[in-house]
Amino acid sequence: MTILVYETTLRDGMQGEGMFLSVQDKLVVTRVLDDLGVAYIEGGWPGSNPRDEGYFTEARRLKLQNARLAAFGATRRLSSTCDSDPNIQALLRAETPVVTLVGKACRFQVTQALGIEPQENLEIVADSIRYLKTRVDEVIFDAEHFFDGYADNPEYSLSVLAAAAEAGADYLVLCDTKGGAMTDDLQRAVLAVRAAFDRPLGIHTHNDADLAVANSIAAVTAGAVMVQGTVNGYGERCGNANLISVIAGLELKKGQRCLPEGKLSKLTHASRTLDEILNLTPKHNQAYVGSSAFAHKGGIHANAVMKDPRTYEHIEPETVGNHNRILVSDLSGKASVVMKARQFGVELAQDDPAIPVILEQLKRLENQGYQFEAADASFKLLVDGAKGRRPSYFVLHDIDVHVEMSDGTLDVHAFDCVSRARIKLEIGGVVAETKAEGDGPVHAIDKALRNLIDKFYPSLKKVELLDYRVRVLSSAEGTGSVVRVLIRSGDDVESWGTVGVSPNIIEASWRAMVDALEYQLVRDQVEAYV
């Protein structure tokens, strides 16, 4: 059976704290979602703000290959007719083939939130759907607060669904609006609705009880054929159902088709692309698509995975566009080191004499605060060093860093600040010195270093700093704490991570910077200057 995936990042997802997309951003997201192969893309609420209205105007020019575009809105007001209701008319102006209409399906919400009589709500639901059904291709009814209403007064909640169905709604979507439904209760309710109505059902869950994905899958098991949610679980409060996990779970565990053939492998790309557009850091431990979803750290695990990935991986990572990773740490055994080195194109036999050296260095360095999970390039250099084949591209003689800071304004938080760095290096037996100014001491050091070694190793000119992070490791020491610096560098081919640890942030940064540059030189097989 095919399950219809209804994606609502552009509307419900934007209700999450700190979430914002411009019209152009929303158009880019629309293309990504269409390429993923979802059946519906809810573009927004055209009656709520000018940005959504502008989006629908621009979206008419899109040539979608897989998805139908939906506009979202509420039933008409009690005091209005559909012809005069501004929200209803805004839905029509959106000119989408699909309109999703939300209405109260809980007696308590009707009397308390809307302040109207239960019968009046039934008439409003029916009238709004009937009006739209004669003017658009498809009308989906979102039964808001359905599960709360069904638990309190099932007769009334079912009467709302009956009014929507009789008025011509194409789908009845049952909403766990507050996100607190328990899975067994929700599934029983879906089964009851399925027995009472011949209209196809949908499910819309929120994650306030951390059950949105489980509840969505349970609803499908009970008969729902449409699942509403968002990529990565974006949304108000604790978020919506994470469609990444719902889609993967239904396709790989339940045998239900959610996306067109060949599209499942795009899940990881879609997840990370949307995070990038929204300027969010991807969750490394997110199921299926996270960078840690198929990462193995313990030596026993790594040894088993090396023999057969099925020993500790519940699916093949490639089916969702991900891949496995072997992490190295002081928990690592020989198998971890062998597999990790292999990922860098370095073959180590199980009895290689360098392996005990590598393990001893790993334990010593991690005891100091080093971690190599996000610093693969530093690990590669460690292996090369243990094998006696890490070239010496230059030798540091000394670094002098000078920072001038003065309060030149009336703003106590604003300072005039200048950082200068002087570096003396020995390259190929020649001692050279250089100076540079930067926005801060680390920037000044980086510029001075690059000014000098780029002349000897021109290929380093293409290396760029992509990310720089500092983590305090021993806060009990206050400003004298040990820090770990993680640097992400890259060129036009790939990106790589390096790490440095020290009580001195300048030293930690230096170690990470040097590893980043030397990794590129080793990778490109550049000979040390002599």
**Residues in helices, as a percent range:** 25-40%
In CATH, the architecture of the domain at 4-277 is Alpha-Beta Barrel
Described by its quaternary structure, the protein is single chain
Structural class, please? alpha/beta
Number of strands: 16
The name CATH uses for the topology of the domain at 4-277 is TIM Barrel
Assigned CATH superfamily of the domain at 4-277: Aldolase class I
CA(first)-CA(last) distance: 68 Å
CATH C-level name of the domain at 4-277: Alpha Beta
What portion of the residues fall into strands of 2 or more residues?
15-25%
Stretches where pLDDT is under 50 for at least 5 consecutive residues are: none
Count every helix, treating DSSP H or I runs of 4 or more residues as helices: 17
Q: Helix and strand layout, with pairings?
A:
Elements: E1 4-7, H1 23-36, E2 40-44, H2 50-59, E3 68-74, H3 86-93, E4 98-104, H4 107-114, H5 118-133, E5 138-144, H6 146-152, H7 154-167, E6 171-176, H8 183-196, E7 201-205, H9 212-221, E8 226-229, H10 243-253, H11 267-277, E9 295-296, H12 299-307, E10 325-326, H13 334-343, H14 354-368, H15 376-386, E11 395-406, E12 416-427, E13 430-438, H16 441-456, E14 464-472, E15 483-490, E16 495-502, H17 505-523
Helix pairs in contact: 1-2, 1-11, 5-7, 6-7, 8-9, 9-10, 12-13, 15-17, 16-17
